[in-house]
Write a structure and sequence with these properties.
Blueprint (H helix, E strand, L loop, with lengths): L7 E2 L3 E5 L5 H10 L1 H4 L9 H13 L4 E7 L10 E11 L5 E8 L8 H14 L6 E6 L4 H10 L2 E12 L2 E11 L8
Parallel strand pairs: 5-6
Antiparallel strand pairs: 1-2, 2-3, 3-4, 4-5, 6-8, 7-8
Helix pairs in contact: 1-3, 4-5
Length: about 190
């Protein structure tokens, strides 16, 4: 994929907006990663669920969906999708904040691709999107997700019991956040 199609480019990864055309690869990677995601995350694994998911990210101005792609990691011209990072509940005005949701696909685990992808999303969020703060709510036992936000420089701000309804129950979450100033960017 030409670099001009990406929103931000790193050494090994690049980010681009999620599209409806990504359905086949995304759902295939989701099915391959089921053991990686469960019990924390349930991304769409069939065409119908993906169409609804992508539609919300594309059509709702309070959401932004990004794919983290491994540059040069596949056969030309496509770079394989390593994971996804979404900014939900975007609020403008004096708040300028959003809530992160993300997931890595199994083939990308342990390779630093999501860390680099998150850095690119932070740069984009605090730059062109004009946000000042991003929050990530993580289930306490999800060590991989906690490690990702720690590496990115997020600070732990609190604990929310029964915060999100996931897999049939209300789950506790730790609240992590980062601001543009913490990354060296101005907002």
């Amino acid at each position: 994929m030409p670099e001009s199609d990406y929103l931000a480019v790193g050494r090994r990864t690049a980010i681009r907006p999620i599209t409806q055309a990504d359905a086949e690869e995304f759902t295939t990677r989701t099915r391959e990663s089921r053991n990686t995601h469960r019990p924390w995350l349930f991304p769409p694994d069939d065409a119908r669920a993906y169409a609804a998911y992508a539609g919300r990210l594309i059509d709702d101005p309070t959401k932004a969906g990004f794919l983290v792609c491994e540059r040069g990691g596949g056969s030309a011209p496509a770079d394989p999708i390593a994971g996804f990072i979404n900014i939900n509940n975007i609020v403008a005005g004096g708040f300028r904040c959003g809530a992160l949701g993300y997931g890595a696909f199994a083939h990308a685990l342990g390779r630093g691709l999501m860390s680099e992808g998150l850095e690119l999303v932070l740069r984009y969020a605090f730059g062109p999107l004009g946000l000042h703060r991003l929050e990530a709510n993580v289930q306490p036992g999800n060590e991989g997700s906690l490690a990702l936000v720690r590496r990115a420089g997020f600070r732990l701000e609190g604990f929310s019991p029964d915060f999100l309804f996931i897999d049939g129950a209300w789950r506790d979450h730790e609240r992590w956040a980062i601001t543009a100033e913490m990354t060296g960017q101005k907002s």
